[in-house]
Amino acid sequence: MAIWNLGSINADMVYALPHLPTPGETLAALDLQQFLGGKGANMSVAAARAGSHVCHIGAVGPDGKWAVDRLMEYGVDTRYIDQIDTPTGHAIIAVDRQGENQIILFPGANRELTNDQLGLAVSQAGSGDILVLQNETNMQGEAAKMGRELGLRVCYAAAPFDAEAVQAVLPFLDLLFLNEVEAQQLEHATGKPATELGVSDVIITLGAKGARHFSMGTGEILDIPALPVTAVDTTGAGDTFTGYVLSGLDRGLPMPQAMMLATRAAALMVTRPGTADVIPDLKETQDAQF
């Protein structure tokens, strides 16, 4: 089995600040670090480090070879990442002393994927493989439809949130990831709670309260509590959780076990500054003491 990720690849420029800026305020950064990031890259690294074969579908610019090399180092299959003329995407991330963040995103090459590139990649997937999408690339609707037709398990992480983007892929989804705010926004846009949109499985992350899974097939609701840690940087925590859940399902774990393992990985990850580069591997996650 494999996970196919149509996902963004970014350079994350992380600025440590005494507090998050208010409108019109100028702040001197306490530190600057560059990491591999992008919701897509984060999820690919998380799923690969959790033990799955992950094929990343994406694009970088002429300045992006380092990002592809870094993904390879973490065990991600990069054969379906194109290098194009558009600059690599990047994010400017401000992190305060409490670990909260603000993010400015430049999509760059992430929004220049082609139908030919997508078709070449997804046609290599096998029935029962997982296809995951986020809202940081183009071709989401086309990919979701193609995945459903090929018998893939189509999953969507609805961030950065856009109601139209979510609704465009809803008819093809098997698993939907939302945070608490996104779930409220989607209900406002559709007039229905996320649990009544026809998606088989819905996972809503609740921050410090943990995560909740809704199974449409059984009607069961599963709550997984968060683990008590002191957060240094929460950037990418949701991506780490998502990647680990998908890897757990890919490796045949039941949903409760996949979510509990993902909760451990995300809790460990937020104790470190950075994004994809600091996602823990499976052994580290299993051995961690909380």
Automatic annotation (TrEMBL):
<feature type="binding site">
    <location>
        <position position="136"/>
    </location>
    <ligand>
        <name>substrate</name>
    </ligand>
</feature>
<dbReference type="InterPro" id="IPR029056">
    <property type="entry name" value="Ribokinase-like"/>
</dbReference>
<feature type="binding site">
    <location>
        <position position="179"/>
    </location>
    <ligand>
        <name>ATP</name>
    </ligand>
</feature>
<feature type="binding site">
    <location>
        <begin position="10"/>
        <end position="12"/>
    </location>
    <ligand>
        <name>substrate</name>
    </ligand>
</feature>
<dbReference type="GO" id="GO:0005524">
    <property type="term" value="F:ATP binding"/>
</dbReference>
<comment type="pathway">
    <text>Carbohydrate metabolism; D-ribose degradation; D-ribose 5-phosphate from beta-D-ribopyranose: step 2/2.</text>
</comment>
<dbReference type="InterPro" id="IPR011611">
    <property type="entry name" value="PfkB_dom"/>
</dbReference>
<dbReference type="InterPro" id="IPR011877">
    <property type="entry name" value="Ribokinase"/>
</dbReference>
<dbReference type="InterPro" id="IPR002139">
    <property type="entry name" value="Ribo/fructo_kinase"/>
</dbReference>
<keyword id="KW-0067">ATP-binding</keyword>
<feature type="binding site">
    <location>
        <position position="235"/>
    </location>
    <ligand>
        <name>K(+)</name>
    </ligand>
</feature>
<dbReference type="GO" id="GO:0004747">
    <property type="term" value="F:ribokinase activity"/>
</dbReference>
<feature type="binding site">
    <location>
        <position position="269"/>
    </location>
    <ligand>
        <name>K(+)</name>
    </ligand>
</feature>
<comment type="subunit">
    <text>Homodimer.</text>
</comment>
<feature type="binding site">
    <location>
        <begin position="38"/>
        <end position="42"/>
    </location>
    <ligand>
        <name>substrate</name>
    </ligand>
</feature>
<dbReference type="GO" id="GO:0019303">
    <property type="term" value="P:D-ribose catabolic process"/>
</dbReference>
<keyword id="KW-0963">Cytoplasm</keyword>
<keyword id="KW-0808">Transferase</keyword>
<keyword id="KW-0547">Nucleotide-binding</keyword>
<feature type="binding site">
    <location>
        <begin position="205"/>
        <end position="210"/>
    </location>
    <ligand>
        <name>ATP</name>
    </ligand>
</feature>
<keyword id="KW-0418">Kinase</keyword>
<feature type="binding site">
    <location>
        <position position="272"/>
    </location>
    <ligand>
        <name>K(+)</name>
    </ligand>
</feature>
<feature type="binding site">
    <location>
        <position position="239"/>
    </location>
    <ligand>
        <name>substrate</name>
    </ligand>
</feature>
<dbReference type="GO" id="GO:0046872">
    <property type="term" value="F:metal ion binding"/>
</dbReference>
<feature type="binding site">
    <location>
        <begin position="238"/>
        <end position="239"/>
    </location>
    <ligand>
        <name>ATP</name>
    </ligand>
</feature>
<keyword id="KW-0460">Magnesium</keyword>
<dbReference type="Pfam" id="PF00294">
    <property type="entry name" value="PfkB"/>
</dbReference>
<protein>
    <recommendedName>
        <fullName>Ribokinase</fullName>
        <ecNumber>2.7.1.15</ecNumber>
    </recommendedName>
</protein>
<keyword id="KW-0479">Metal-binding</keyword>
<comment type="similarity">
    <text>Belongs to the carbohydrate kinase PfkB family. Ribokinase subfamily.</text>
</comment>
<feature type="domain" description="Carbohydrate kinase PfkB">
    <location>
        <begin position="6"/>
        <end position="280"/>
    </location>
</feature>
<dbReference type="GO" id="GO:0005737">
    <property type="term" value="C:cytoplasm"/>
</dbReference>
<keyword id="KW-0630">Potassium</keyword>
<keyword id="KW-0119">Carbohydrate metabolism</keyword>
<feature type="binding site">
    <location>
        <position position="233"/>
    </location>
    <ligand>
        <name>K(+)</name>
    </ligand>
</feature>
<feature type="binding site">
    <location>
        <position position="274"/>
    </location>
    <ligand>
        <name>K(+)</name>
    </ligand>
</feature>
<comment type="function">
    <text>Catalyzes the phosphorylation of ribose at O-5 in a reaction requiring ATP and magnesium. The resulting D-ribose-5-phosphate can then be used either for sythesis of nucleotides, histidine, and tryptophan, or as a component of the pentose phosphate pathway.</text>
</comment>
<feature type="active site" description="Proton acceptor">
    <location>
        <position position="239"/>
    </location>
</feature>
